[in-house]
Amino acid sequence: MMIILALISIGKGSGDGHPPVASLSGVPNLFGVCVYSFMCQHSLPSLITPISNKNHVGSFVLADYSLILGFYVLLSFTAIFCFDSSLLHAMYTLNFTDNCHVLDVPFLRYFLGLFPVFTISTNFPIIAVTLRNNWKTLFHREGGTYPWVVDRVVFPLITIVPPVVVAFCTNNLESLVGITGAYAGTGIQYVIPACLVFFSRRHLEPVVGRDAVNKHRSPFRHVCWVYFVWVWAASCLMFVTANIILTETKT
Q1: Which of 39, 49, 112, 238 could form a disulfide with 96 if both were Cys (CB 3.0 to 4.6 A apart)?
Q2: Integer Rg of the chain from CA
Q3: Pick from 46, 71, 44, 68: which is nearest to 58 by CA?
């Protein structure tokens, strides 16, 4: 809906966006946002697991990521040409609410304005339950059980209190996404998977031997790609940290 509305406005010649060819000022924060946008990887297990014949799974994943990239590109480019960059909200759906020349239907304005609320309302309970179970597993004692207060009160509270506190402390979505994407996202999506690949290969090599061939092996199977992911993760952290320090120094 947002893509079509922006395209209609651009097609009518009423687009307010006149973006520069390039702006290096936003590059540091871009690293954190890119990591955050990579959360589309969470859907891969549910896509790959039901496939019995995985001979063409690489092509399937490539098509999936190409489709996701296409939507990201369409959403981003229609936004920067439709709306004035100085007035563009970090939460893109808010551009279609009050005083919007693109959309004049009140119901749709409210719907797009509340769309993040709908998605968070459905995703947050699932993510919170998963995190609570991870906490319980992390502190699990062999053969022991947790007291009722710890199991039903403490673990849920340490799961839901931090995001609620952050929500009350800031409404700067751009910085929030950049920080969470760069620090938490880098560890979850870059560092930990690369470590799993590296150490699992070292563990399996004595078992299956060096000559064993995996017919489903990735084209990025060389160990240099693992090192590249670690270097990329460190670069993201440095750029975002430098951006935060420089931004705070200016203010």
Answers
A1: 112
A2: 22
A3: 44
Tell me the CA end-to-end span of the chain in Å, nearest whole number. Answer: 37
- Per-position pLDDT tens, the chain of length 251: 889 988 988 888 877 878 877 777 777 667 666 766 666 666 677 778 888 887 788 888 888 889 888 998 999 899 888 888 877 877 788 888 876 778 888 888 888 888 878 877 887 888 888 888 888 888 877 767 788 888 889 999 999 998 888 888 877 766 676 677 667 777 878 888 899 999 988 888 888 777 777 777 778 888 899 999 999 888 878 877 877 777 777 66
> Would you give the DSSP letter of residue 19?
-
> How far apart (Å, rounded) are the C-alpha atoms in residues 246 and 72?
28
pTM confidence score = 0.65
Residues 109 and 100 sit within 8 Å (Cβ to Cβ): yes
| Token pair 């709306």 in the structure block, residue | 83
Which of 166, 169, 201, 164 lies closest to 183 in space, CA to CA?
Answer: 166
Q: Which amino acid is at 69?
A: L
- In whole angstroms, what is the distance from residue 113 CA to residue 97 CA? 6
